[in-house]
Design a protein that fits this description.
The complex is a heterotrimer of chains A (about 300), B (about 525) and C (about 350). With about 300 residues, chain A is mainly α. In chain A, about 70% of the residues lie in helices and about 0% in strands. Chain B has two domains: about 230 residues, Rossmann fold (3-Layer(aba) Sandwich), CATH 3.40.50.300; about 190 residues, P-loop containing nucleotide triphosphate hydrolases (Rossmann fold, 3-Layer(aba) Sandwich), CATH 3.40.50. Chain B contains 18 helices and 23 strands. The chains are: A mainly alpha (about 300), B alpha/beta (about 525), C mainly alpha (about 350).
């Protein structure tokens, strides 16, 4: 393989990993508060379709991105209403959100299928982009890729070094104890869920405004679910989410690479790869269940209502 | 009026759906006073504490703090005005360090400087004789150390009233002494202490005054050192309940259960490993195992129940190896288990008593070729309910709707009616009202007299001395020798609970110990 | 101030009132939506719910769409009662359809009743094995079944696409991704002459009733129930967890596989990429709406079958996007879960606290 090919593959990996990174970071924060939101797919789809429509009607990509984030947040608040306020089963509520979001996005977007816009352009960062291999891979990307990296750094600092991060982890470990310590558990969980929604919306916008600048039904094709697996894989640590997102990104473009190398195999069979990789990763994690268990936010999936 | 009380509660009422937890409660705690709040489980002590700490709001009544009527809006507010609380199930975060835990309960401005906070934690904890390393993770601390973290947290906040909810139930006798020293020191410095307990002797040792509750109401108050334990007990349970049972001497028969060098590594990061357990239990005797929670009791129960299998050559009933048998096969062999967790192991909370009967009694002709014989199950359930005086709306009531005592009578009855040859009961009267406890004790004695072996795992030393023919202690997964109750002084047993007994690897050594004790 | 308060006893009224309330709320939202889109709300509602059922043909089509939904839902009921979150009915359905088609195409020259049995059997086994994969991943490797079954759905879809584009493609089909038509011996007999309704509906009704009996009368059903409500009690009682999990998955997969097989050997008569309009996912809603009870899921499957027909009808009659089906289904589940909260909780008007406490001052 020559350098150019490697560079191209790595650059494509970053692009394919970006939506996963965004949605997984959001879900990570959400799960750290003890809430498991299985509605990622639904929120991403709503972000994708609303972002696309807003960008088409306003002619501004920035407006599209903002609307997408907003759409994700609104969807996540619906989830929070069920799973946090009404203490519904989080699994069922998340599934409902995905089914609802899939239906709603298809309905809203039905007249926009087939339209296209010019998506986010690549921006080369002066000097840095001239570094061989690394330059084109990391510093000749679009704005949202840079944004995703910035968000990663912020999330990392927040979780590791701030009092807010400490409170988030505390609530996720034991809402009862947090309540007894005077923390506002439901407020913390609402904020965490909303952050997850905003990130999923942004991830959706990345798909419909940058990755393939157009809207098609179900265009997320399981990325929301893969992100959920990714958070488990990362044992709820942001730095591992970053690594994992790009690994999964690589898996999802592998079939393009193989075809590029002249492999003759059916597209359909190769398209299974990311899903098979996801299962394989889940299996590998089972080799060390103790580590996974030690890092799992202890209250995850359990509804909490303070007694009055 | 002599002086302003530190805390005064006036006519506190708290109604929950289907239960009036506090019904016109009055309480007065003076500055520097150690005040006991006594009562059985369900008497309303916990609710009252939650009211004082602002976790729940009373429906009626008022809280007067240092002479001012105060609406305590929540735990944070309670802390700000000087109320500190040490919970029974600690409100600590296991994955965080000691300092982080304490920082979370301080205002952000005070918590910012980590180094300063750590110094303060060290200072305060040494001053009160409860050393703590602020950088350790709570998950690595012992139960006693965790309690220290909670107390030190209150002290750093300069609480004027410290509430402790059953603080001694998780401690070894030695740890209790250290705790009492600290509390007396605090009291001398003017800090008021509200001490919630149901252990009457402790209350007599420590407290200046006591308020007794039953059924949500205050039933009396006294100076504990001036009245007898029985007097207090009467106030707690009322006049119509017997206080205890007296066991008749037993006539042990042949060896039924032998455990030989049973060791188990634990898979649970917070569990205890069993270390070469040896014991022989005879038919027709009650054998007690004392110990502070978390010393391998649960692991031992699982090993006996079959929830966890053992290797060959470790567990025998009537000389037959049952180590590889699962719970169902062991039940067939006559093993009955009463686990510590009534709801969520001994019984399914959301299912009816009828369904919960089927849970373990299915081997008694209640199932035919895979079909449930519901008439038989109902009949069996009705029999348990009648024979063991289980008070429930009907046999179709859910397990969760029963009080702790009634549910425990149901579970004991369900197992006893299957006529087991070995009954293993873990903490059977924990959190159970005195009336039910007496009924449960009688059921165990009756089983013994019918020739069954009873293994009683308990933290309640009174209970063990009352019922058991032989007693030992479990500490750190090791089992002390099991010696006749009459030959084992309570000081000796307390030492054993702290792990001060020789390894019983060799039978000769064990015999020597028994000899020495005798 | 309104506050949510836990009921002492769960409300029996809300247990069954909740689905009805959810349906009413969905219809109400639908009316608002139609109005907002500038359509006549009542007419649209009529096209959605009434017009599809105006003749025998309509009722037969309803039964036709009910069959796969109910088969999948009956299987999922077993899983969900056991608290196994099998989201994989769709994939198990697709595998059933795929391998039933393989069997039907291999046996295209054979005749006799056994051909159909082999075709259906192939579907059942394929669906059950596909579900068993998730079961093994759960019991052996402790993988979360939600994630694995979703991934298996995507894999199954791609396998099906591979088959119709490759090995099973009809050489005379002008390059369309579809198989040859099945021979008559591989087709399900019809239930009402002149309609597409086939005996698959009977399988489905039977399965729903059988699942009902399983849980109300048999010891295995009791064990599954206990495992679902309280896994520690199940372990304590000695009910083998692995065995029960496998059983639940195998039943669910088998029934979903049968649904897939019935679709290809019933109305479709060949393998095509769009063999399922999402029956496996919609069945999840059926289970929740039907309260995991036999009668409930039968009624719920009829209602959700109607949403597929209503969506098509609105597309034809009022030029609305067909995706309205998915929207209604999502709304319905959403409202259902919201209403379900009031099984355990009730709203209570609370007096402001401060006034009470101050009013009691001594």
């Amino acid at each position: 393989m020559d350098t150019l090919l490697i560079t191209n593959i790595l650059a494509a990996t970053i692009i394919a990993g970006t939506p996963l990174l965004l949605v997984a970071l959001g879900e990570l924060v959400c799960e750290r508060s003890g809430v498991l939101n299985l509605g990622q797919e639904g929120m991403m789809l709503m972000g994708a379709v609303m972002g696309f429509i807003a960008a088409v009607t306003s002619g501004s990509l920035a407006v599209g991105v903002l609307v997408a984030i907003l759409a994700g947040i609104v969807m996540s608040l619906l989830f929070a209403l069920m799973a946090v306020t009404l203490a519904a089963n989080q699994y069922a509520a998340g599934l409902a959100l995905t089914i609802f979001g899939t239906g709603l996005s298809a309905f809203i977007g039905s007249s926009y299928v087939g339209q296209s816009i010019s998506g986010f352009p690549k921006i080369a960062i002066p000097y840095l982009s001239d570094i061989p291999v690394l330059g084109p891979v990391l510093f000749r990307q679009d704005l949202l890729v840079y944004l995703s990296l910035l968000l990663f750094v912020l999330a990392f600092i927040f979780l590791r070094y701030t009092r807010g991060g400490l409170i988030l982890r505390a609530v996720g470990e034991s809402p009862e104890a947090a309540n007894a310590n005077g923390m506002r558990v439901l407020a913390v969980r609402y904020l965490a869920v909303a952050f997850g929604g905003g990130m999923a919306g942004l991830a959706g916008a990345y798909l419909s405004l940058a990755y393939t600048p157009m809207w098609t039904e179900n265009m997320t094709s399981g990325r929301g679910w893969i992100a959920l697996a990714l958070v488990v894989f990362a044992t709820w640590k942001p730095e591992r989410v970053l690594l994992g997102a790009y690994l999964f990104g690589a898996a999802s473009i592998l079939h393009l690479v193989l075809q590029g190398l002249g492999w003759r195999s059916s597209t359909e069979l190769l398209a299974m790869l990311p899903y098979i990789v996801t299962i394989a990763v889940l299996v590998l994690l089972s080799c060390n269940p103790a580590r996974t268990r030690l890092n799992t936010p202890l209250s995850i999936g359990q509804p909490y209502r303070p007694s009055k | 009026m002599a002086s302003t009380a530190r805390l005064e509660l006036v006519n506190i009422v708290k109604q929950y759906p289907g239960c009036r937890a506090n019904d016109g409660v009055h309480l007065r705690v003076a500055a520097g006073e150690i005040h006991a709040l006594l009562g059985e489980n369900g008497a309303g002590k916990s609710t009252l504490m939650k009211v004082i700490y602002g976790v729940v709001q009373p429906d009626e009544g008022s809280v007067i703090w240092n002479g001012t009527p105060t609406l305590i809006r929540g735990p944070r507010h309670a802390r700000d005005i000087g109320v500190g609380m040490v919970f029974q199930h600690f409100s600590l975060f296991e994955t965080l360090t000691v300092a982080e835990n304490i920082a979370l309960s301080l205002p952000a401005s005070e918590a910012r400087n980590t180094r300063k906070l750590e110094t303060r934690i060290r200072e305060v904890s040494t001053r009160y004789g409860m050393a703590l390393d602020p950088r350790r993770h709570v998950s690595n601390l012992s139960i006693g150390e965790r309690q220290r973290v909670e107390i030190v947290r209150c002290l750093i906040q300069q609480s004027a009233l410290l509430i402790l909810d059953e603080p001694t139930s998780v401690l070894t006798p030695q740890e209790v002494q250290i705790l009492f020293r600290t509390l007396r020191q605090l009291s001398a410095e003017g800090c008021s202490i509200l001490f919630i307990s149901h252990k009457l002797q402790e209350v007599r040792d420590l407290c200046h005054t006591a308020t007794v509750m039953r059924g949500g109401k205050v039933t009396g108050s006294c100076v504990p050192s001036e009245v007898s334990v029985d007097d207090i007990a009467r106030m707690m349970v009322g006049s119509d309940t017997p206080l205890s049972t007296q066991a008749t001497p037993s006539r042990p028969g042949d060896v039924l259960l032998s455990v030989r060098q049973l060791s188990h590594a634990t898979t649970d990061p917070f569990g205890t490993r069993l270390d070469a357990i040896d014991m022989e239990l005879r038919a027709g005797e009650i054998v007690g195992i004392a110990g502070v929670a978390g010393n391998g009791q649960d692991e031992l129960l699982r090993a006996l129940s079959g929830e966890r299998r053992s290797e060959v050559g470790r567990l025998f009933i009537d000389g037959k190896d049952i180590g590889q048998a699962g719970p169902a096969q062991r039940r067939q062999a006559g093993v009955a288990i009463v686990p510590e967790e009534r709801l969520g192991r001994g019984a399914v909370p959301g299912m009816s008593l009828v369904a919960n009967t089927l849970l373990t009694a299915y081997g008694r002709g209640l199932v035919k070729r895979g079909w449930v014989r519901s008439a038989k199950v109902r009949e069996y359930t009705a029999r348990i309910r009648e024979r063991f005086d289980v008070r429930s709306a009907s046999i179709d009531s859910t397990a969760a709707s029963l009080s702790g005592g009634n549910l425990q009578k149901f579970i004991i009855g369900r197992e006893a009616l299957q006529q087991p040859r070995l009954m293993v009961a873990s903490h059977p009267t924990w959190g159970v009202d005195v009336g039910s406890a007496v009924a449960i004790h009688e059921a165990l004695i009756q089983l013994r007299d019918q020739g069954a072996t009873v293994l009683l795992i308990s933290e309640d030393l009174d209970e063990l001395y009352q019922l058991c023919d032989r007693i030992g202690a479990l500490c750190g997964g090791r089992l002390s020798p099991l010696v006749p109750t009459s030959e084992l002084g309570i000081e000796q047993l307390e030492q054993w609970m702290a792990g001060e007994f020789p390894r019983s690897d060799t039978p000769e050594l064990a015999a020597e110990v028994i000899h020495a004790v005798a | 101030m309104l506050s949510l308060e836990r009921r002492a006893v769960d409300s029996r009224l809300m247990q069954w009132g909740s689905p009805v309330l959810a349906l009413l709320l969905t219809i109400l939202t639908g009316l608002v939506l139609f109005w907002a889109l500038g359509k006549d709300p009542l007419a649209a509602l009529g096209f959605f719910f009434l017009v599809p059922l105006s003749d025998t043909h309509g009722w037969a089509e309803l039964g036709l769409k009910m069959a796969p939904l109910l088969l999948c839902a009956a299987g999922l009921t077993v899983c969900y009662r056991t608290r196994i979150w099998n989201i994989g009915a769709e994939g198990q359905f697709l595998m059933g359809a795929l391998w039933a088609s393989v069997a039907a195409l291999k046996l295209s020259d054979a005749t006799g009743f056994w051909v159909l049995s082999v075709v259906l059997g192939a579907g059942i086994i394929a669906g059950a094995l596909w579900a068993w994969l998730a079961a093994v991943l759960k019991t052996r490797f402790h993988c979360n079944e939600i994630l694995t079954t979703i991934m298996l759905n995507y894999i199954a879809l791609n396998l099906l696409l591979y088959a119709v584009h490759g090995p099973l493609r009809d050489p005379m089909g002008f390059g369309f991704p579809q198989s040859e038509m099945f021979a008559a011996s591989a087709l399900l007999p019809s239930l009402i002459d002149g309609t597409r309704l086939h005996i698959g509906l009977l399988f489905a009704l039977f399965a729903a009733v059988a699942v009902g009996v399983l849980f109300t009368r048999t010891f295995i059903g009791f064990q599954l129930n206990v495992l679902g409500q309280d896994s520690r009690a199940a372990a304590f009682a000695g009910f083998g967890e692995k065995r029960l999990i496998w059983l639940a998955f195998l039943i669910a997969g088998g029934l979903a596989g049968l649904a897939g097989a019935s679709e290809v050997s019933g109305p479709i008569r060949q393998l095509i990429p769009q063999v399922s309009p999402g029956y496996g996912y919609t069945a999840i809603i059926v289970v929740f709406l039907g309260r995991m009870q036999a009668v409930g899921i039968i009624l719920a499957s009829a209602l959700l079958a109607l949403t597929f027909m209503g969506g098509e009808m609105l597309q034809i009659a009022m030029n609305m996007p067909k995706a309205i089906t998915g929207l209604f289904q999502g709304l319905l589940l959403f409202y259902l879960l919201t209403c379900d909260a009031f099984i355990h909780y009730r709203l209570r008007l609370r007096r402001p606290l401060s006034s009470v406490a101050i009013g009691q001052e001594v």
